[in-house]
Amino acid sequence: MWSNSSYIPRFSSSKSVGKVGYRPIKSAKKRLKDKLKTLTSRKRTGTFREIVKRINQTTVGWINYYGIANMKTFIREIQAWLNHRLRQLIWKRWKLPRTKYAKLSQYGIQHDEAMKTAHSRKGYWRISRSEVLHQAIPNKRLVKWGLKDLSQLYERRYSKD
Fold first, then answer.
1. Which bin fits 17, alpha (ψ -120 to 50), beta or left (φ > 0)?
2. Span 114-145, pLDDT tens digits
3. Which of 27, 41, 96, 155 is 20 to 30 A from 69 in CA distance terms?
4. How far apart are CA 146 and CA 10, in angstroms?
5. What pTM, to 2 d.p., does this model score?
6. Which of 56, 120, 41 is nearest to 88 (CA)?
7. How far apart are CA 49 and CA 57, in angstroms?
8. How do residues 2-25 score in pLDDT, each as one tens digit?
């Protein structure tokens, strides 16, 4: 599984309010984010479903391995960042303003807002933060398209009751 035989994944211990807990080390978090960054690259080929499938494999495996650690905040941050990244990827794949307009209209955005957003000269990352794109592609739609909700997955697998 690991390319370097001397590598042993580690947890760092933390002490907060009289309790001792564990969390993944910074390099493990960075590796996860880097892996997700390559999977959601704007120049990546393949269908959206294939990309989501690979993302799910990566995140589920990571949560299964590091799930015993305290990382609720990190999971929330990664989920928000990943949703942002996927919206950016979708926006890039729509390419032409007429396609962007058609898709925004299809997902219930009013004519004026769809026109303004579709013909915007702002970059993909900035547009993916816009309220219009969040209304057109909410988190529920991403889940419907196959993306697993990391917070729910983490809570279900490792609830700290």
1. left
2. 999 999 999 999 999 999 999 999 999 999 99
3. 41
4. 30
5. 0.84
6. 41
7. 12
8. 555 455 556 665 666 566 667 788
- Tell me the C-alpha to C-alpha distance, in Å, between residue 58 and each of 87, 117, 148: 19, 32, 11
Tell me the one-letter amino acid at 112. D
Helix (H) or strand (E) holding 153: helix 150-157
Residue among 71, 90, 79, 78 nearest 128 (CA): 90
Please tell me the distance from the alpha carbon of residue 72 to that of residue 123, in angstroms, as a whole number.
Answer: 31
Tokens of 23: 């969390």
Pick from 152, 147, 149: which is nearest to 52 by CA?
A: 147
Q: Give the CA distances from residue 16 to residues 20, 21, 22, 88, in Å, rounded to whole numbers and listed in that order.
A: 7, 8, 11, 37
Cβ-proximal residues to 159 (8 Å cutoff; 6+ apart), any chain: none
